[in-house]
Automatic annotation (TrEMBL):
Entry EC no(s): 1.-.-.-
Family: Belongs to the FMO family.
Keyword annotations of the record: Auxin biosynthesis, FAD, Flavoprotein, Membrane, Monooxygenase, NADP, Oxidoreductase, Transmembrane, Transmembrane helix
Protein species of origin: Cephalotus follicularis
Segments crossing the lipid bilayer: 251-269
Reactions performed catalytically: indole-3-pyruvate + NADPH + O2 + H(+) = (indol-3-yl)acetate + CO2 + NADP(+) + H2O
Database matches in Gene3D superfamilies: FAD/NAD(P)-binding domain (3.50.50.60)
Known cofactor(s): FAD
Pfam families reported in the protein's UniProt record: FMO-like (PF00743)
Top-rank taxon: Eukaryota
Signal peptide start and end residues: none
Protein known as: Flavin-containing monooxygenase
Keyword Glycoprotein: no
Length: 426
């Protein structure tokens, strides 16, 4: 990869050092599935690239911030990245370990070697030179020596994910609670919660699955449902609900597919509202399209709700020592709290740009137009369509850059000389 990098300035290796690196090709920020998929597609186009990753491994969300029992919740054909399918012997729903193994071999296959421990602090487009300036900070070694690097490139690909940072709401009295409090990204298994009363805040896929995991480890979870939620069985009559929805969408309008899904869900699960799980007014697919809210694909939690092993409770009013007070005035004694309250994009904290990305860290345009901005800016994996959406973006980005790259490399000598001149002004 160093071939792609032309080091312009390399100061001493003291406590604080600064470097400036010209990247021949795009800089990809993030080595999750989206960044890897884009890198692989660029590799196929013969375009060199640099991947910057804040963690010390690829797919850090999957390796470090997910619980042990996690499996892909869509069948494998909807989760594989471009150009390299999952191994044939993988099950229909690969485990987290298998998915990581696949990503590791994917990176190896396409010779993707990210620059680890490089957290992008800022990126801005320099109008004068027509180039992106991307600053990273690395803290390494026992003395925590800090290195600042500035990468200069023609194309910037944002692949930092929809789930870059945890969301933890602030509740009155939480600091006086006294028990264990964690976000679901730090939850690994219910093993350490055996015999405990646990409040799980949130009823998305994480909240549901962690509540189930807690039950399976003889803990007693109470799950907070503050608004509404669509619960669908992961499979309907042996076929994945997701696959079924995709098939039906080929022939039927979205509202009708939503209606059929809800009828089928009712046949399998019954009336979930009886158990405190109010359904949203919009259908599951429409809600996903309009608000980005993912339906829960049930893998057993609902049965535990029906049996009373998972208690469904309303919104939180406040915490106090060892207990939580709910909106309905009920007070529960609890030992621990797991916030399964979701994630957010971190793009606004580092990307100095406001035309393509909005303040919430997502592109302003929606699928299928959310992959390309102005001046060589691209986004992959921000259409709330999981891994298949990321693959769609990755293919288009690589084709788009590949075309320009092929034209430009015909006049490579002139172009490189011009860029170098631009950089040397700063
Ligand atoms: C628990 C869980 C289960 C999921 N299961 C599925 C599933 O079964 N199927 C599905 O399709 N989707 C699933 N998803 C959605 C999932 O987020 C995506 O499918 C996938 O991980 C997105 O990949 P990504 O590369 O866009 O983002 P991420 O996997 O989040 O990768 C982004 C990378 O960018 C790095 N990064 C962030 N900020 C910076 C920075 N400033 N500088 C440098 N690097 C940075 C991060 O460290 C990370 O490695 C799941 C999500 C969660 C939370
Ligand atoms: N097996 C799998 O593949 C799997 C497993 C887990 C997660 N995922 C995916 O990962 C992504 C994130 O899922 P997630 O479940 O972690 O997050 P999520 O879908 O964003 O759900 C967050 C939940 O927290 C609730 N919440 C937020 N703030 C709250 C507050 N102040 N008080 C009470 N409740 C609050 C939300 O309620 P409101 O709806 O009222 O806002 C919602 O129920 C999704 O795309 C999901 O599909 C996949």
């Amino acid at each position: 990869m160093e071939n792609n990098l032309l080091r312009l300035v390399d100061h001493d290796k003291d406590f604080f050092s600064r470097r400036c690196i010209w990247v021949n090709g795009p800089v990809i920020v993030g080595a999750g599935p989206s960044g890897l998929a884009t890198a692989a597609c660029l590799r196929e186009q013969g375009v060199p690239f640099v991947v910057l990753e804040r963690a010390e491994c690829i797919a850090s969300l999957w390796q470090k911030r997910t619980y042990d029992r996690l499996k892909l919740h869509l069948p494998k054909q909807f989760c594989q990245l471009p150009k390299l399918p999952f191994p044939e012997d993988f099950p229909e729903y690969p485990t987290k370990r298998q998915f990581i193994q696949y990503l590791e071999s994917y990176a190896k296959h396409f010779e993707i070697n990210p620059r680890f421990n490089e957290c992008v602090q800022s990126a801005r487009y320099d109008e004068t030179s027509g180039l992106w300036r991307v600053k990273t900070v690395t803290a390494s070694g026992p003395s925590h020596c800090t290195t600042e690097v500035e990468y200069i490139c023609q194309w910037l690909i944002v692949a930092t994910g929809e789930n870059a940072e945890r969301v933890v709401p602030d509740f009155e009295g939480l600091k006086d609670f006294g028990g264990e409090v964690m976000h679901v990204c730090d939850y690994k298994s219910g093993e350490t919660f055996e015999g405990k009363e646990v409040l799980v805040v949130g009823c998305g896929n994480s909240g549901m699955e962690v509540s189930l995991d807690l039950c399976n480890h003889n803990a007693t979870p109470s799950m907070v449902v503050r608004s509404s939620v669509h619960v669908l069985p992961r499979e309907i009559f042996g076929k994945s609900s997701f696959e079924l929805a995709i098939l039906m969408m080929r022939w039927l309008p979205l509202w009708l597919v939503d209606m059929l899904l809800l009828i089928l869900a009712w046949l399998i699960l019954g009336n979930i509202e009886k158990y405190g799980l109010k359904r949203p007014a919009m259908g599951p697919l429409e809600l996903k399209n309009v608000k980005g809210k993912t339906p829960v694909l049930d893998i057993g939690a609902f049965k535990k709700i029906r049996s009373g092993d998972i208690k469904v409770v309303p919104a939180i009013k406040r915490f106090s020592r060892g207990q939580v007070e709910l909106e309905n005035g009920q007070k529960l004694r609890i030992d621990s709290v797991v916030f399964a309250t979701g994630y957010r994009s971190n793009v606004p904290s580092w990307l100095q740009e406001s035309e393509f990305f909005s303040k919430n860290g997502f592109p302003k345009s929606s699928f299928p137009h959310a992959w390309k901005g102005n001046a060589g800016l691209y986004a992959v994996g921000f259409t709330r369509r999981g891994l298949s959406g990321a693959s769609f973006d990755a293919i288009r980005i690589a084709q788009d850059i590949g075309k320009v790259w092929k034209d430009e490399t015909k006049h490579k000598k002139t172009t490189t000389a011009c860029h170098r001149r631009c950089i040397s002004q700063y």
